[in-house]
Amino acid sequence: MSTPGICYLVGAGPGDLGLVTLRAKQCIEEADVLVYDALSSPVLVGWAKPDAEKIYVGKRAADHALPQDQINALIVEKTKQGKNVVRLKGGDPMIFGRGGEEAAELAAVGVSFEIVPGISSTIAGPAYAGIPVTHRDHCSQLTIFTGHEDPTKGESSIDYAHLAKTPGTKVFVMGVARLREICSAFIEHGADPSTPMALVRWATTASQWTLTGTLGTMADIVEKAKFTSPAVAVIGDVVKEREKIAWFDKRPLFGKKIVVTRTREQAGELTRSLSDLGADVLELPTIRIESPTDRIGFAEGVTQAHEYDWLIFTSPNGVQRFFDAFYATYEDARSLGKPQIAAIGEGTAKKIREYRIGVDLIPEKFVAEGLIEAFSKDSVENLTMLWVKAEESRETIYEGLMALGAIVDECVAYRTVPETSDPNGSVARLKEEGADLITFTSASTVDHFFGMGVALPEGCVAGTIGPVTSEALRKHGIEPAFEAKPHDIPGLVKAITKYFAKHP
Q1: Could you read off the pLDDT of 441-476 as tens digits, one per residue?
Q2: CA 58 to chain centre
Q3: pTM of the model
Q4: Contact 41, 91 (CB under 8 A)
Q5: How is the chain split into domains, by residue range?
Q6: Which CATH number is 123-250's, of 3.40.50.300, 3.30.70.120, 3.40.50.80, 3.30.950.10?
Q7: I need a labelling partner for 427 at 20 to 30 A (CA). Which of 139, 361, 365, 469 fits?
Q8: Is 76 helix (H, G, I), strand (E, B) or coil?
Q9: What is the dihedral of CA 335, 338, 342, 343, to 10 degrees?
């Protein structure tokens, strides 16, 4: 017996990932087939299962990857095959998203479907620009219309004479190409040319750009600024509120394009921190983490960890690899015994604590030399230590502790290799758009970045997390613009913010 399929018409929201609904995320994660448009963030597509069929059907004004009738036929066909289909659309699928047409097609053939609303750019765009679409001092009515009608209709069905006389705020989308015509139509039918007006491009994203003017001046402003779609337009006195409550584009890193070169698994914390400060973050992983060459040796180190006086961790990657292997072997945390735990950096210590394990030593300097210095304050002679490390790590810790009289064994937990895939097209975007800053969090991210054959864009600087990474950058002939202190992610974020405060 065949399994009945279902199609979810899902709103992806206006662009900010934080505005995607929990239901939308759940649908994407469970989809067998993901049919998505041009306004969907690549991150959303990445939420789909690895084996999900991903079909791009994006539309831009005159550039259609797939005509609407073929999209309708596609989602019907996939659903009738018993698949869990998600049709992912920017904003809300039922607000100028043709979701109603797609739902009608599904209903006509008798297949199951569900509509998952999303936050529309018609509301979110003005809000992120500091413009409330309703306000007690200005209006209590909101009118939303489209600036891009069906070209086959022959004549416009929009009654500009009625709109011009309608009180309150007017919001329209998909009208940048016809902006002069739309503004003229309002004025011709009696609207005051001095009525405040705003356009918000790429609303709710780090690329957001807001222009303000009036009905009479906006077309000229747009042409002079070479302002293009996608954008939301707002007409009405509420635009005046932007002067008082604009917030999104006043964040310290707004308008700065920053490249994160960490692994895909680790990029999240840095990306979130920078995005929260307004940066346009481009994730371009230069490395990925793989199992060590000597897997048996690693396994032996993990199973014998309880025999040591000290366990030393120098990175969150090492912590995760170690404890994943440990709990795959032992069911009880007490099997670890009673070794003391040392960690370089708060990030590493935080990762250890996630496994409900305490940390006994964090050196003041978050580098190998700082660890040696911390151990040198007391005698470690004849103490046994297991150093959980990356395959390509410097031997500074081993040599330094051995010189202090400790007995050190190395437990190689992982190795870093060049990242060869680029599913989000980040390399092409960097070459095309450039960037203000590229961040490096290890020597390997530096070496593998330049190994990709990608040069620093013109006007772009590089920032590092610490001295070892800085030295690696200098070997490639580039002086870092700054170095984080302390040498961890919060320290790096602080250094970035401080740098751009001095170099706006």
Answers
A1: 988 889 888 888 888 888 999 999 999 899 999 999
A2: 20
A3: 0.74
A4: no
A5: 6-119, 123-250, 257-286+419-502, 290-417
A6: 3.30.950.10
A7: 469
A8: helix
A9: 30
